[in-house]
Every structure is written in structure tokens, then in C-alpha cells.
């Protein structure tokens, strides 16, 4: 009985990719994930996540990571289809792993609707869509760690070139970086999501 967990990382960020990760394992191995301390990635330090990441990869039967670029995100946001985009990529991950059943962390206010959409697209086993699945099911917690570590690595790669902070709109360092780039280059960096409200406001005031 192969069980899969799927979660995202970087949805609220103003820059970098949105990462969707899935891990699949025999039901008997899930207990082992709990024993090594796997839990929701938000409850772990970056160092703990990196350490657990290697252990998770060694325990699970398979895993798959999908990265969604800012350009694809912007296109979906403009069409008011960000949830659909996530459903599509979660379905892609599940289709690659081909489990008997999957647990996904729902980004939709209606988890049942989100689960049905993934089910139509994935056509692979039963889908259980729940809010806070990353803290409720250890297989989803494992996926959340895999997603977060990959997302962190992508941001770290950018940080080696640019002093851009955490990448979140609440980070003044991130917003100052984008503003300065716009003033210096008269454009938005390719790795920034243009459809995000704070960026749109910045673009408007810069063009005014």
C-alpha cells in the first residue's frame, strides 16, 4: 500500500519559484518518519530541515519535485487561477509517483473541491485534501520538508548574487531590493512575481 503526501513551499513569496513536492512510501515506513522527528517544516529550523531531508529521501520509496516559475505564476494570477495551477502541479507530482492514495495540503478554502480537481487531473488513487495536512499527516510533513528545502536552496542561489532578504513581501529588505532594481534597471527582475499586489503598486508609482 503506497501512500503519498504532497505540499508546497513559497506560495506567498514575492520572488523565486513555487515548489511542489511529493513523497511516496509503503504504509509500514510512515511510522519511521515520525520516529526520526519529521513534522511540519514550519516548526523546524533550516538546519533541522536539511538534516531530515536526507533521512526522508533515504526512507521513502520515491519522491518528485516540481518548480513553478514566476512567469507561470503571474499568468495564473492574472487569470485568477493560482489554486488551479497548484492543483495541476500536485496532480503532476501524484501522476509521477502513482500511489494507492494521496494526502494533499489544500490551498483552497474548500478542501473537497480542491481534492476533486486534483483527482480529475491525476487519475491515480484516492485523494484526501485537507487544511493543515502538513501538521496532521506525517507523510505530508515529509513532503513539506522536501518542498521547503528545495525552495530555500533556490533562494540561497539567488542570494549569492543579490542581497534580497527572505523574498517575502513582509520583508522590508526584499521590497527595498525590488524598488532599487526598478529604479536602476527600469524593469522588474525575472525572478520577481509581477502579479503580486506590492509589486504592482511599486510598478504603478514608478511609472507615474
Rg estimate, integer Å: 18 Å
Q: Give start-end ranges of low-pLDDT stretches.
A: none
CATH topology name, in short, is Nucleotidyltransferase, domain 5
Please tell me the overall pLDDT.
95
What does this protein look like?
This protein has 208 residues and is of the alpha/beta class. The protein has one domain (2-159): Nucleotidyltransferase, domain 5 (2-Layer Sandwich). Helices cover 52% and strands 16% of the residues. The chain has nine helices and five strands, in the order E-E-H-H-E-H-H-E-H-E-H-H-H-H. It has a five-stranded mixed beta sheet. Strand 4 (101-105), helix 5 (111-122) and strand 5 form a beta-alpha-beta unit. The longest helix has 22 residues, at 138-159. The radius of gyration is 18 Å and the shape is globular.
Short summary:
The chain is of the alpha/beta class. The chain is 52% helix and 16% strand. The chain contains nine helices and five strands.
